[in-house]
């Protein structure tokens, strides 16, 4: 600590209780100096005859959110003594007083304390696996001893944040803090246990480990259950190996294995990519030109216009976050159908156990169906979610302009339409912004905020904040066709169709992408959403533009009634009541026929060519989006792909992945395809510049934002 700086760890004495306060804002991560500070305080208290017990507590909003993730992968000084060794060797009881979050190394310290108490809204967890590592501070050895190997494995392998009330039931927390003053109650608790001996050390507990005898197959069962989701990853399997060691080996041997496997993972490709994704998801929230202290309007009431699938999903998102929502539709039948769909969606969650009946009832009562614009006039924010057609949207916005109170925020949920044109029918274009929800709106995390030419900073800031408040990841985009997310994805979809014309089979392309890490291949996804989605648009475009080539194979399948899963046939065929795609020779025949009719040359493709053609086309487009200043950062595009398009998280994102190949190689390949396939592969000048200077694509910033 330099002179005049606030200490990272404070020690104070109160009523014979030594209070160790960790004060490293914003979340008390175990950054440089914090561990040594804690050890010094513990040693001081141990040596002080006037101290009978200790409390460890976090200043500010959390206990300890874990190791400092920024330090991983860098050389760093080892702490003078490991905190947990000091705790294990101590002779006085230490109580961890948990509020906010106790995560990773933070929970591991709490587990090495003798007692843990928590406020009811605290959360605890060992989320290391989410950043590609494992709990490296004894968590894999102590947690199974405390709550049993099965529950510990579920927590560690999922990385989920467990609410304190559940943690108490599991046995992680000894007592709940009833009042508001955590510190005071922790001191009282510490005094109440000061004389109890022996000190309860989790490392000495063995009874819960015996559970494995009744269920020796639990480890293999867990490996099997994660096989699909965790493919290509090491961390979840290493977590399981450590917990297996906890039940089969002495504590110190288990710790040794934990240390070894932690060291192996820290610099693995998956850990690097996942760390990148963690910070990219925090960066995306920041719009550089918006002052941090910009006063934003409070949003206490919301309205959604349009009770279709999209409007219903948006209303659910808002209601899930506790906002009262008025759902407006002119047609009582559509409203009734919309509400029934919402009720049904919630009922599915209740039947799966992810929602209680009471929560469902509360959420349903927050959604009020209304039929007039007057009924929503007082709402703080309105999100329009009507048909994706400009005249319809304009009509709604003219009505909103006339009806809504002057301070209302007017948002449009569009995935492609021009925000400025929509805003132009109002007398308050500064209050209009785009809020692009992904489908299904109540589930998907990506929330693209589209800044119109006249959107005010306050409206932009309020839209970004609304997304965060309803649990989404807000990402800025400029106003252009498709905005940032869909626009960067469109070339992928195009190449997918073109490669089939050139001879690649849908099942080959799907397999390449699933092996790469996608949950499902693009043709399987097409079958889920329906092949007819853009059929009319393509026909209209073809009628208006003789050079428009469309997607002749898809169109042929649609004309044959192969619309996807809903008709039992699409790119694949499906057995009654089963969603497993089955390769269908009829599709192969259609592909050959259309290719012959149109004179497409067919050939074979390597898997690598398929992967690169799909993803490079999107990398190039993302660079163009940045070039035009329609996105703020390349890493924002990665966040959109991770949370909106199923891109495998352990590969970091589209641009991060491209950097693993190298900008120069990506550029060279695109330049070759530009020669071969023409204008659609014109390389982005941003890409060319990065390739020439040997930089990283993921560090690109949008032009206007630099
Ligand atoms: N290390 C470094 N920085 C961290 C951090 C950590 N563990 N946790 C959060 N931060 C930073 C964020 O990057 C952000 O910085 P910024 O303001 O400069 O962008 C700031 O703290 C606030 O974070 P959030 O915006 O995420 O704040 P929220 O209030 O939304 O969420 C949180 C708080 C739930 C604690 C969330 O930040 C989180 O989940 N953090 C990660 C926790 C984690 O993974 N811990 C395990 C670390 S690994 C470990 O402990 C290894 C051990 O086993 C040895």
Account of the protein in words:
The protein is an alpha/beta fold. Helix content is 47%, strand content 11%. The protein has 29 helices and 17 strands. An 8-stranded mixed beta sheet has the order 12-11-10-13-14-15-16-17, sandwiched between helices. Strand 3, helix 2 and strand 4 form a beta-alpha-beta unit. Helix 12 packs across helix 26. The longest helix is centred in the middle third of the chain and has 21 residues. The relative contact order is 0.06. It binds 3-hydroxybutanoyl-coenzyme A. The site of 3-hydroxybutanoyl-coenzyme A has 23 residues, from strand 5, helix 3 and helix 12.
Summarize the structure.
The protein is built from 29 helices and 17 strands.
Name the average pLDDT.
96
Low-confidence stretches: none
CATH superfamily of the largest domain: 2-enoyl-CoA Hydratase, Chain A, domain 1
Q: Which cofactor or ligand species appear?
A: 3-hydroxybutanoyl-coenzyme A
Shape: globular
- CATH topology value of the largest domain: 2-enoyl-CoA Hydratase, Chain A, domain 1
State the CATH class of the largest domain.
Alpha Beta
Q: How many structural domains can be distinguished in the coordinates?
A: 3
């Amino acid at each position: 600590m330099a002179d005049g700086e606030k200490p990272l760890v404070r020690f104070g004495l109160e009523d014979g209780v030594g209070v160790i306060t960790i004060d490293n804002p914003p979340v008390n991560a175990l950054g440089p100096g914090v561990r040594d500070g804690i050890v010094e305080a513990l040693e001081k208290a141990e040596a002080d005859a006037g101290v009978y017990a200790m409390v460890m507590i976090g200043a500010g909003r959390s206990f300890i959110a874990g190791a400092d993730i920024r330090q991983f992968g860098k050389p760093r000084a080892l702490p003078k003594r490991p905190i947990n060794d000091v705790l294990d060797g101590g002779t006085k009881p230490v109580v961890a007083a948990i509020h906010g979050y106790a995560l990773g190394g933070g929970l591991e310290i709490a587990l090495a304390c003798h007692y843990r108490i928590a406020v009811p809204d605290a959360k605890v967890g060992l989320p290391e696996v989410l950043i590609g590592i494992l709990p490296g501070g004894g968590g894999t050895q102590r947690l199974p001893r405390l709550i049993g190997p099965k529950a510990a494995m579920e927590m560690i392998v999922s990385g989920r944040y467990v609410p304190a009330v559940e943690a108490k039931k599991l046995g992680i927390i000894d007592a709940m803090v009833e009042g508001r003053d955590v510190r005071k109650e922790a001191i009282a608790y510490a005094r109440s246990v000061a004389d109890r001996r022996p000190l309860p050390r989790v490392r000495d507990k063995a009874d819960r480990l015996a559970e494995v005898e009744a269920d020796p197959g639990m480890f293999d069962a867990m490996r099997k259950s994660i096989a699909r989701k965790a493919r290509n990853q090491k961390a979840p399997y290493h977590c399981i190996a450590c917990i297996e060691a906890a039940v089969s080996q002495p504590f110190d041997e288990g710790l040794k294995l934990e240390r070894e496997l932690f060291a192996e993972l820290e610099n693995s490709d998956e850990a690097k990519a996942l760390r990148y994704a963690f910070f990219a998801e925090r960066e995306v929230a920041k719009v550089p030109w918006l002052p941090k202290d910009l006063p934003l309007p409070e949003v206490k009431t919301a309205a959604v216009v349009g009770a279709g699938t999209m409007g219903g999903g948006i209303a659910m998102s808002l209601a899930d976050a506790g906002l009262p929502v008025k759902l407006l539709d002119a047609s009582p039948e559509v409203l009734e159908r919309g509400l029934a769909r919402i009720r049904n969606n919630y009922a599915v969650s209740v039947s799966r156990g992810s929602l209680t009946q009471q929560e469902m009832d509360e959420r349903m009562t927050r959604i009020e169906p209304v039929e007039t614009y007057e009924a929503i006039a007082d709402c703080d924010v309105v999100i329009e979610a009507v048909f994706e057609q400009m005249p319809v949207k304009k009509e709604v916005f003219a009505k909103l302009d006339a009806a809504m109170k002057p301070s209302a925020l007017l948002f449009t949920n569009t995935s492609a339409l021009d925000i400025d044109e929509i805003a132009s029918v109002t007398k308050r274009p500064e209050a209009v912004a785009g809020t692009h929800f992904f489908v299904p709106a109540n589930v998907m995390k990506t929330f693209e905020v589209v800044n119109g030419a006249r959107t005010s900073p306050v409206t932009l800031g309020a839209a970004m904040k609304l997304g965060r408040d309803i649990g989404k990841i807000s990402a800025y985009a400029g106003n252009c066709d498709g905005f940032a997310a869909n626009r960067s994805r469109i070339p992928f979809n195009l190449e997918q169709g073109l490669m089939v014309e050139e001879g690649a089979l849908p099942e080959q392309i799907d397999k390449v992408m699933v092996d790469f890490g996608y949950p499902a291949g693009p043709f399987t996804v097409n079958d889920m959403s329906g092949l007819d989605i853009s059929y009319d648009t393509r026909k209209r475009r073809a009628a208006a533009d003789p050079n428009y080539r469309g997607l002749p194979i898809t169109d042929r399948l649609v004309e044959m009634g192969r619309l996807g899963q809903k008709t039992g046939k699409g790119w694949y065929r499906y057995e009654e009541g089963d969603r497993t795609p089955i390769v269908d020779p009829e599709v192969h025949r259609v592909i050959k026929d259309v290719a012959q009719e149109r004179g497409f040359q067919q050939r074979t493709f390597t898997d690598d060519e398929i992967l690169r053609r799909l993803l490079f086309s999107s990398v190039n487009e993302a660079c163009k989006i940045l070039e035009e200043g329609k996105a703020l950062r390349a890493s924002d595009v990665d966040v959109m792909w991770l949370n909106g398009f199923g891109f495998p998280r352990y590969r970091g994102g589209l641009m991060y992945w491209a950097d693993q190949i190298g900008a120069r190689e990506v550029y060279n390949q695109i330049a070759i395809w530009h020669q071969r396939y023409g204008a659609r592969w014109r390389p982005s000048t941003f890409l060319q510049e990065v390739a020439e200077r040997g930089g990283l694509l993921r560090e690109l910033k949008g032009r206007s934002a630099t």
